[in-house]
Amino acid sequence: MEFDLKMPKPNAKKISGIVIAVVIIIAVVVFISRSLVVIPANTVGIRFAPFSGGVQDEILEEGMKIVMPWDLVYKISTEVQSKRIDKVYGQTKDAQFLTIAIDVKYKVDKALAFEVFKNFKTMDNVDRDLIIPTTQRAVEGVTTQYNIIEILGSERNSVYTTIEKDLNERLQSNGISLHSITFLDTDAGEDIEQAIRAEAVAKKAVETAEQNRMKALKDAERRIIEAQAEAEEKRIIAESISENPEIIELEWIKKWNGILPEVMSGEGGGFILDLNKGE
């Protein structure tokens, strides 16, 4: 007994319809996924529209944004960035050289993020092409106004403040806000630093000697004043006694303990014996 099994022929229209539906669904999913962009917190987006003139100056704030699926969105962080530069070189007014290690903290100005992106594209490029060379120029521009002793000594704070101010102005013109700058180390070479230490020791010795001299001078002035006061006191007493001899008698009476002396002679050559002595 034979069986004739015949498979039903597939419906070509139905299959093509399914394929088209799948393709449409995929296209919609891709379109939506490419059109929705999430901008994280502390970040801005810069849109590149190839069919609308390239980079757009519109700043995309944080949140979900809708763009054309063929557009590209570049994300620029507006958080504080930190760049450590271990070797920034400077030359002083007296032709000495020094090396400074600096930590620069900065952030992109939101309002100028478009300019930052247009000029540098990425934060790595900002570090390499802006922060490092600009810091170098700021240091060079300030150190030439001071000699090495001033930079490492009495004018150190003034030098650092001026460098910070100059760097801030240079960065602001490029859409970057300077958050802070930390001077980690300033090295002028062992010979220079040893000479500065020796000068500091000598200066301290001079200051100490001056302090001792002033102290001795004040002590001498104090002793002179005390001696003058004592001499004046004696002079006044002497004048008082000369003018008033009874003062001596009054002082003697004040100091007498009430006991008569054992022997007391008078003007007539006689004397008085203390008869109570033997009792």
Can you characterise this structure?
The structure is a single chain. The chain is α+β, with helices and mostly antiparallel strands and 279 residues long. It has helices spanning 12-35, 113-120, 123-143, 148-152, 156-172, 190-243, 246-255; strands at residues 36-39, 43-49, 54-60, 63-66, 72-77, 81-91, 97-108, 176-187, 263-265, 271-273. The chain has three domains: 12-77, no CATH class; 81-188, Band 7 domain (Tetrahydropterin Synthase, Chain A, 2-Layer Sandwich); 202-246. It is built from seven helices and ten strands. The strands form four sheets. The chain has a three-stranded antiparallel β-sheet, with helices on one face. Strands 6-7-8 form a three-stranded antiparallel β-sheet, with helices on one face. The chain has a two-stranded antiparallel sheet with strand order 1-4. Helix 3 packs across helix 5 (156-172). The radius of gyration is 49 Å and the shape is elongated.
